[in-house]
Design brief:
682 residues; alpha+beta; 5-stranded mixed beta sheet; 18% strand; elongated
Length: 682
């Protein structure tokens, strides 16, 4: 047809078709954009809205029944959101009813629990209940006070639920007592208990361990009853010193009374004035003796207790002797620690008092002011030696001291009786050429507990986030990776700093932390401490956290605070929001403080991105996560307040992670490593 047209007709037809061709061309060019916009709208209105609706539903079903979904997407999705909210309303009402019934059903159990708690709180003794692995299950306020660390510089760890007793008391002593209890259970001893004495941060503690039995009389755990005997030992030393002073102080008054009485008897015809003078001497000296005896009786009011023999390390006995020698008789003692550690079975209280009494006699006789204390194994015994320079001791003096009472109770105890109780003996050696003496005491020994050193965990390389790799902590092990998240103990912490540049010299000024054990937030087990940064606080940072340089004056420095926080967090997984920022500050203080945090770290920022992948960055801020999960925000931008909010958020994230198949520590770490936040570097 086009060929049948002449040129003018062709041009006319082309002119007529040109606008239509341009329109078709324009439509062809716009069609992909229109299709893309339509697909984008459709995706946001339906699949995207459905994914977000599913995430919101998980929050309602799992952690926050009061949460309601937003009406977003297409008309159908909006109607679905309204229906979901109506269902959520009924679900919340039903859940409230079920929780009410559960609360009523558990009233009796709660009553029994309160009775147990009241009984524990009223006990005068310090009591700790542990499971078979040594994890603390229960403790009373007396135990918390007894085992409270003595300040930031203390070497002791605090008692807490889920914490290992081996980090609180000497592991060797506790393990040895546990083996004794287990052996006695196997032998079907009626009262399978063990006693031991140990040192903790300068305290001399006496403990009784009793088993907690489960089915078939198998050991499910144990109870420790603790008593601080430090002051009792020191008090008996002071009382012994008073006894010597009393003995020495009564000789002169008695001599005066005797002389006056003999004079009156010898001269019965003396005049009244002389008789009255001698009678006054007798009355005055008798009154002085009476006052001195009253004073002695007051000091001796609490009697010396004779305890059964208990297991203790020889070094602990030497420490007790060192302290008592100094406080009671003014003798400085140098202790040579036995290597490897030696064990004794002794009545430590009586033995310390008896040897202190002997040392007092040696000091009085030869003015000794310094002594060396050492221990050595001799077969099935341990030889305790006291060495000093001076004249040799007479054998008659040793025999007299052996029979001399060292207490003022009735019946009075003697060194001979104490040694007989231990099946031991004592003797003295002298080296006249060197002018040295050695007093030896033989005591029954026990073998020390041997423990194989744990293998160092492998170090793995991971991506870098804020110059700190959260995923390559040396304390991470395959065994720990396999642990369920709900079974681990956590320390949730936060720091406040002078600024936001740790590598540029900014310092920590506050650390706050709280513990989570068995999925339960322990609000009473917290760590909170301001830190003197030894540099000014930036004005912009002070506007955020409100901590000024003046508030930090006089506070402990980081070399004191960080070791204390390390002890609080030991044997736990660390948790923080934007954790790499806080961990970078801790990492930079390793060389300065000698403290290294090697345990695994979880970040609630990354965990939130795992359970809510469709949310924008702003919705993963701590306040937004807390609002979404129904957590009340209090004390924001304080280390302790942020730690508590982060802890509550973490507890509510655990069931949401479980719904996504993330149930172990290893799964949480691996999934966190794949989030976008793990790939950012600042």
């Amino acid at each position: 047809m086009w060929l049948d047209l002449d040129e003018p007709e062709r041009q006319a037809l082309a002119a007529m078709l040109r606008p239509r061709l341009m329109l078709f061309t324009l439509l062809a060019l716009l069609l992909p954009f229109a299709v893309g916009a339509a697909l984008r709208w459709w995706f946001m209105a339906y699949p995207g809205a459905a994914a977000r609706l599913a995430a919101e539903l998980r929050i309602i079903h799992t952690v926050n029944p009061a949460h309601r979904v937003g009406a977003e997407g297409g008309p159908e999705m909006q109607r679905l959101a309204s229906a979901v909210n109506a269902f959520a309303q009924d679900h919340e009402a039903l859940r409230t009813e079920v929780e009410t019934r559960i609360a009523l059903s558990g009233a009796h159990l709660l009553q029994e629990k309160n009775r147990l708690a009241a009984l524990m709180s009223e006990l005068a003794q310090s009591v700790i209940v542990c499971n078979a692995e040594g994890r603390v299950l229960l403790y009373n306020a007396q135990a918390a006070r007894l085992l409270a660390p003595g300040g930031p510089a203390s070497s002791a760890s605090p008692v807490g639920l889920g914490r290992s007793i081996f980090g609180i008391l000497d592991k060797g002593v506790v393990v040895h007592a546990l083996e004794q209890v287990t052996h006695r259970l196997e032998q079907q001893v009626p009262r399978a208990v063990a006693h031991f004495v140990t040192l903790r941060d300068g305290q001399l503690l006496r403990a009784t361990m009793a088993p907690v039995l489960g089915a078939e009389r198998k050991l499910d755990g144990f109870v420790l009853v603790l008593e601080d005997i430090t002051r009792a030992v020191e008090a008996d030393g002071r009382r012994d010193q008073l006894l010597r002073q009393l003995t020495e102080g009564t000789r002169a008054p008695l001599a005066n009374i005797r002389a006056a009485a003999e004079t009156i008897e010898q001269y019965p015809d003396m005049d009244a004035a002389h008789r009255e003078r001698f009678t006054a001497v007798i009355l005055d000296e008798a009154e002085r003796l009476s006052l001195r005896l009253d004073e002695s009786a007051a000091v001796a009011a609490d009697s010396l207790a004779y305890w059964p023999l208990e297991d203790m390390q020889a070094g602990d006995l030497a420490f007790a002797l060192q302290r008592n020698f100094k406080n009671s008789v003014g003798v400085a003692a140098h202790v040579r620690e036995p290597q490897p550690p030696l064990w004794l079975t002794v009545d430590s209280h009586a033995l310390v008092q008896a040897l202190t009494h002997v040392m007092g006699n040696i000091t009085s006789a030869h003015h000794v002011r310094h002594v060396e204390i050492d221990m050595a194994a001799e077969g099935r015994h341990v030889r305790l030696s006291l060495r000093w320079k001076g004249p040799a001791l007479a054998s008659e003096a040793l025999r007299a001291w052996e029979m001399q009472p060292f207490s003022i109770e009735q019946p009075a105890a003697t060194l001979k009786e104490v040694l007989a109780r231990h099946g031991g003996e004592w003797w003295c050696r002298s080296d006249p050429a060197r002018g040295e003496n050695q007093l030896c005491v033989q005591l029954p020994a026990l073998p020390p507990e041997s423990a194989a050193p744990a293998a160092a965990p492998p170090v793995q390389e991971r991506p870098v986030y804020y110059d700190f790799d959260l995923f390559s902590q040396p304390g991470q092990t395959p065994e720990l990776d396999g642990q369920p998240l709900s079974a681990l103990a956590y320390t949730v912490f936060d720091t406040e700093t002078t600024g936001l540049d740790p590598s540029g010299g900014d310092e920590i000024i506050s650390i706050g932390a709280v513990r989570i054990v068995n999925g339960r937030l322990l609000r009473h087990e917290t760590f909170e401490q301001l830190v003197n940064p030894r540099r000014p606080v930036r004005a912009e940072s002070q506007r955020v956290h409100g901590i000024s340089s003046a508030m930090l004056a006089g506070q402990p420095v980081i070399e004191q605070v960080l070791p204390a926080f390390h002890r609080f967090a030991e044997d736990t997984v660390l948790v923080a929001h934007n954790a790499a920022f806080d961990m970078r500050f801790l990492q930079l203080k390793e060389a300065q403080t000698g403290v290294r945090f090697v345990q695994p770290v979880l970040d609630t920022l990354m965990l939130s991105a795992l359970v809510h992948p469709g949310h924008a960055d702003a919705e993963h801020r701590l306040e937004e996560i807390a609002r979404r999960l129904g957590v009340e925000v209090m004390g924001r931008h304080t280390a302790q307040g942020d730690a508590l909010v982060t802890a509550e958020v973490f507890v509510k994230l655990l069931p949401l992670l479980a719904e996504r198949g993330i149930r172990t520590l290893g799964q949480a770490r691996e999934a966190s490593r794949k989030t976008v936040y793990a790939k950012l570097a600042y």
